[in-house]
Amino acid sequence: MYLEGTQMTAGMHVIKSDAEFKDKGSTDLSNIGPFSTTQGGDGGNAGDTFFVPNFYYVRDFGDKYKIGLGVNAPFGLGTEYKDGWMGRYASTESELKSININPSIAFRANESLSIGLGFNIQYMEATLKSDIHQAPFWSDARAKINGDSLGFGFNLGFIYELTAATRLGVHYRSEISHSLEGDAKFSNMFSLGGGSVKTDADAKLNTPSTFSISLSHQLNDRLTLLGDVTHTKWTNFDELRVTNDNTGAIIQLVEEKWDDSYRIALGMKYQLNEQWILRTGIAHDQTPIDDNYRTSRIPGDDRDWLSFGASYTASKHLTIDVGYAHLWVEDAKINEQYDILGGAGGEGNLIGEFDSSVDILSVQATWKF
Prior knowledge:
Elements: E1 7-23, E2 49-61, E3 65-72, E4 77-80, E5 93-108, E6 113-132, E7 141-161, E8 166-173, E9 176-189, E10 195-207, E11 209-218, E12 223-233, E13 239-243, E14 250-255, E15 261-271, E16 276-285, E17 303-313, E18 318-329, E19 332-339, E20 347-368
Antiparallel strand pairs: 1-2, 1-20, 2-3, 3-5, 4-5, 5-6, 6-7, 7-8, 7-9, 8-11, 9-10, 10-13, 11-12, 12-15, 13-14, 15-16, 16-17, 17-18, 18-20, 19-20
């Protein structure tokens, strides 16, 4: 409701993640009786570089309403380890992609209160890879699980003007239930003479609901102070269970037991002149991952953000925004237990910690018509 006329925004975010494992006593796989194998390396840098787009559109709809469309990727990223690393029977590659299409409508209830409501159409795709230990005279088999899903949800919020200089915002975004359907492929199987087999697979996954309270206060004609607290309800992510769609047999089961988390952010923007706005901010982003259930697929921990950027008004029709953020990730301790011999009596432990960080560079353009 605070955007004038018709506007369209398109942006791109380049996200570079780094995650390096430091071994601190992982199980030596060469000690597993007749099924001996080498322990393997540390996996190298499991991070990667990702390109994440976003698009937003808003226009007037009558005298009191505005309609809009948002397209973004709220969940994603992943890990990929070097071949033959010591945790390969737990994971070798994990990737999650999503796209969220969010049409919305907003209206001004009175001079102080604006209300918005949106509907979400969310597509999600996941890939999970790991190795399977076989007899010592045959190399590891490979497991690859693929699946995708379409889910639906809603979001609503309001902005209330406490004073002419101070606005309070409240926003809720619902969880979205996904039922990912796809297949599980097992290749280089000793029992098949090096051949492959494929079976149907599915998994249930609920994205978390979020609840945010934010505050904006214009201190003077140049400086505005900003704050935000967001609660993310991750407790519905209790396990990663992949089953055969036809028989119900478990293909993969990993306990996750995530907790709810909070993110606290403070920022400011400074109107340098008519063309330039400067921005900076800090945030503490709490991990939902319990230390006792951390896995090599998602080895995250608490994150601290430092961000800064600028807006340049090139003309009355065009504004360019650039932003950069660095995330310091707390060293993530891991003691992951996993099956080696397919239920035949062999287990391994990946014991150590991950040293991680993230850098984000964002560029976007806004056109006003």
